[in-house]
Amino acid sequence: MKAVSSRDNPRLKRLRGLSQSAKDRRQQGLTVLDGPHLLCSALDAGVGLAEVWVSESGIARPEIESLLRRCPDTVETFSLPDPLFSQASPVDSPSGVLAVFAPVQPLRTLDNGNWLILDRVQDPGNLGTLLRTAAAAGIAHALLTPGCAQAWSPRVLRAGMGAHFMLPIHEQVDAMAALNAFGGEVIATGLMPSASSLYEIDLAHDVAWLFGAEGEGLSAPLFARADRIVTIPMIPGCESLNVGAAAAVCLFEQYRQQRAGGSR
Amino acid sequence: MKAVSSRDNPRLKRLRGLSQSAKDRRQQGLTVLDGPHLLCSALDAGVGLAEVWVSESGIARPEIESLLRRCPDTVETFSLPDPLFSQASPVDSPSGVLAVFAPVQPLRTLDNGNWLILDRVQDPGNLGTLLRTAAAAGIAHALLTPGCAQAWSPRVLRAGMGAHFMLPIHEQVDAMAALNAFGGEVIATGLMPSASSLYEIDLAHDVAWLFGAEGEGLSAPLFARADRIVTIPMIPGCESLNVGAAAAVCLFEQYRQQRAGGSR
């Protein structure tokens, strides 16, 4: 492990840039994860890490020490005094360990299974929560339109809680074009009178779920592309849920139906 | 309408304090909502507003103009140049209208129906989303333990999208004591082998749902107080959902069951 103590160290400068700047991450094709939980998920998934950085107080924690021992020899490791670590961390409450790595490219092309298509979801917390829900509900592919936040930014990674390493994530996708190759039913949520209740439809087949940004909703062409509009029944006077909550209700209703129809 | 143009105006100073400081809000028993959507919800609910502040560009918007006309004469209205409005706004992208009001005290004491008990949920976005979901699923009472974020802070109000005006919210609650008066089933989520699948239990009766902070979970005494632990079935290898997503799945599964058992 190399000890870095100068704030002008070029590797440390790069780390700070990757932590703080979407542009730096895009240009270098690298990102930063924060915390032992995510590092453990990345190691479990066999993600190729470039660098691991630990704070001096972080090294002393057995949880972090054992993660360091799990890193392959190809991973460069660095230690930092706590104040420098805090400055380089992408989060307000630094957790003692960071890792630099290249976002995982989906190994599988878009094939069968359920898809989650997210249109212009810009809030990192919402986006990470949606990916976490999708992984837990067995979504086969997440597709993100160009207006979405960077899926691999530190904040989205943190909210995703490891989902990034379980779920193929396709960014900058032309969703209309991708749907041409989709063989299942395309479903959006909405309130029009013609909408079906989520609980009155059969979901035991492949579905591409469409969810849009808070407030704005789906782009008009995508909404028009839906084969079916569903409504989540709720108390009169309430018109909608947070996009993460709505997706959780829909995806887990489908998981419930598909599980009930299967080996359960 | 009074035009305020000095940044040292005492009423404007108070507005800034209420927007930015949890301590100011607590000491004065007042809070600030932001945006036409929330203002409309507050007016619909008959909330007593103390002040409404508009930016000069906000006054020109028909949506805001018509909301101003709906305000009773007892509401003091102020206009502000856009730069002063931005400084006084609790959010990064000011929407043109703010209102000062006292948090709505629950009119009903804790009576029958479903309860949502939130233990030390500190993230304002998560807390607001949870309240929004609870209102939509017909929860009768939301109970917040002392470790939760301020329910009526501007950020929680914004994420709640009007839920605050539909749902009795009880803050600083001793949940253990409150549960002594609860006649239904107390349910927490968890992963232990003895847990029931959410989809295999009958939820057509009053339930007090317990959800804890991200990461830490419920306090040990509250968890031990649960009559039943339920698990949301999910893909093996995924251990949990975001607390807002998990609550949405549980509360809407109950809503589905209670609706199916009723007049549907």
Automatic annotation (TrEMBL), chains A, B:
Residues 1-26 are annotated as: Disordered. One of its GO terms (molecular function) is RNA binding. Keywords: Methyltransferase, Transferase. One of its GO terms (cellular component) is cytoplasm. One of its GO terms (biological process) is methylation. It holds the Pfam family SpoU_methylase. Belongs to the class IV-like SAM-binding methyltransferase superfamily. RNA methyltransferase TrmH family. This is RNA methyltransferase.
